[in-house]
Amino acid sequence: MPNSLYQRLTDAILGLLFPDRCAGCGLVGKLFCPSCQAKLKPYPLEKQSFRAKESEKLSLDDFTVAFIFEGALRGALHQLKYNKIRRMALPLGDLLAKHLAKHPLPADAILPVPLHPKRLKERGFNQSALLGERLALHRKVPLLPTGLERTRDTAHQVSLNAQERQANIKDAFSWQASKPPPARVLLLDDVLTTGATLQACAQALRAAGAQEVRALALGRSRPDR
Ligand SMILES: [Zn+2]
Q1: pLDDT reported for residue 68
Q2: pTM for this entry
Q3: Per the domain annotation, does 96 fall within a domain?
Q4: Which residues contact 159 (CB under 8 A, 6 or more apart)?
């Protein structure tokens, strides 16, 4: 039996045994149903002054966040990262592409925020790279999944406050390729919290010769301002 046919049969049987369920509402037959996608709340970035101040703090030229990280989006990202449903990167990547079409950022390449090799081995994939693959297809901008490397494992950021995170992650990234990074880089992360990770990435890229570094994240917690 040809491999593709075997694969299709396996998928069909698995689909019958374990049908897709929407990460938001549980609807059978969809990973992330259109109605739940439509209910996602855009992250409020209308205040240009806030964006400029935050960008400067993070060593970025600009950044944008698609949605408030809550509810169905939290569920969908959990399915991707922890339940390892890689196909979830497709609807999420499509949402990122739609957001970027409305809020374009100039870029020569998309660089997913890298995982430490140990973490990558545990998970089997980098969720931001999967999102980036989909986004790159839509935007016709190349994805550059190597070059920027996480050289220090900073796994347990969750329990740290903003200052501690920044200290913990400083110098955790470096540019490891023989060629310099592209002039205009778009960093891609799944969830932006304090921004310490993006800042450390941006600093490593600039040190290696990147001229302009911007960032895109799928979600961020509701701003308390
Ligand atoms: Zn749903």
Answers
A1: 95
A2: 0.89
A3: yes
A4: none
Domain count, the chain: 1
20 C-alpha to center of ligand 1: Å? 11
Angle separating helix axes 89-102 and 71-81, nearest 10 degrees: 130
What is the 44 CA–ligand 1 centroid distance (Å)?
Answer: 23
Reported confidence tier of residue 225, pLDDT bands at 50, 70, 90: very low
Ligand 1 center to 37 CA (angstroms) = 7
The boundaries of the domain holding residue 82 are 43-220
The answer, yes or no, to whether residue 127 has pLDDT greater than 80, is yes
On whether residue 95 sits in a domain, the answer given is yes
Distance 185 CA to ligand 1 centre (A): 34
- Cα(130)–Cα(133) distance, rounded to whole angstroms? 5
Q: Given the structure tokens 């060629």, which residue do they identify?
A: 179
Q: Return the CATH number at 97.
A: 3.40.50
Distance (angstroms) between ligand 1 centre and the Cα of 28 equals 9
